[in-house]
Amino acid sequence: METGKTSKYLKYAIGEIVLVVIGILIALSINNWNENRKLQNEELKVLFDIKTNLETTLANFENDTLLNHKDVIQYLKIEEYINNNHSYNNELDDAFGRLTFWGGPFIISTAYNSLQSKGLDIISNETLKNTIVDMHEVQFSILVNDYDKSEWNLNQTVVTPFFSKHIRRLHNESLFLSRPNDFESLKQNEEFKNLLSMIIRQRKRGFEFYKDIMNSIKDLIQDIEIELQTRKK
């Protein structure tokens, strides 16, 4: 009888242990599922935020390109006056006023900075992750360091020093209007002609930079959107 009781007790105890273990495994499974769900939601939010930042950056770049195109048209107008030996007209005030300005890249990267703080591995799609990193670490860097910095160097070392000697800001009329002190003399100034050609060439070079990176941004936005839609299903 004692043996029978012991046998039943052992069976009961083992059953209890098995139930406890199963309960623990289920709890761990639910916890892991919740954690994975949280990580996935966090990943999707980061991707959505990066896409939003890219869309804003793309809009900024489109505005920059439009502005630079308008500037080149103004600069070519100055060349036209010089080449055709026209007398000065006040319509050139805007063109001369724009000589020291350009549309530089304004990049929104708060979401990418957040991704870096969270860890790049939060993005499970390796190809997409690499493309995002390449965009922010390589392509944006090339635009800023190769194109925009060269604009700054040209402006600081060539354009502004010449401008301050030969061209006056019409600040009483507008912050963006300027007029040469002696346009007839400026038309014969080879240094100014060289300067003008350098600015025009630099802006046209910038168009190529912007064109390439804007195409890449559009592709990346589409890739992220596909990833978001796929993961929501």
Descriptive overview:
There is one protein chain. With 233 residues, the protein is mostly helical. It has one domain (2-232). Helix content is 80%, strand content 3%. The chain has helices at 2-83, 92-97, 110-118, 126-166, 183-187, 190-232, and strands spanning 167-169, 178-180. It has a two-stranded antiparallel sheet. A hairpin with an 8-residue loop joins β1 and β2 (178-180). The chain is rod-shaped.
Overall average residue pLDDT: 90
Name the poorly predicted regions.
Answer: none
Distance between the termini: 62 Å
Q: Please trace the helix and strand order, writing H or E for each element.
A: HHHHEEHH
Task: Summarize the biggest pleated sheet.
Answer: 2 strands, antiparallel
Based on helices, strands and strand pairing, what is the structural class?
mainly alpha
Strand content: under 5%
Number of E strands: 2
Order of strands across the main sheet:
1-2
Q: How many structurally independent domains?
A: 1
Radius of gyration over C-alpha positions, nearest whole angstrom: 32 Å
Q: Please count the helical segments.
A: 6
Name the helicity range. over 70%
